[in-house]
Amino acid sequence: MSSTLAGNLTILGSIADIIALEGARRPGRSQRPVDILRPMRRILLPLLLAGCLTPALAAAQTRTTTRKPAPPPAKKTAPAEVDCPSPLGSGVGTKRLFCDVPIGRTPADGITITIPPHRGATVLTFDLHNRMTYSEDLVRAGRAYARLTATIGVMTMDNTLITRAVVQNEFRTAADLFDRIGGGAGPGGLKAVAPTGVEPIRIDLPADLTQVCVLGEKLAAKRPDADELFTGPGRPVALISNVMVEYVPAPAARTPPAKAPAKKAPAKK
Question: What is the DSSP string of the chain?
Answer without folding.
Answer: -HHHHHHHHHHHHHHHHHHHHHHHHSTT----HHHHHGGGHHHHHHHHHHHHHHHHHHHHHHHHH--PPPPPPPPEEEE-EEE-SSEEEEBTTT-PEEEEEEB-SSGGGSEEEEPPSBSS-EEEEEEEEEEEE--HHHHHHT---EEEEEEEEEEETTS-EEEEEEEEEEE-SGGGBS--BBS-SSGGGB-SEEEEEEEEEEEEE-TT--EEEEEEEEEEEE-SS-EEEE--TT-EEEEEEEEEEEEPBPPPPPPPPPPPPPPPPPPP-
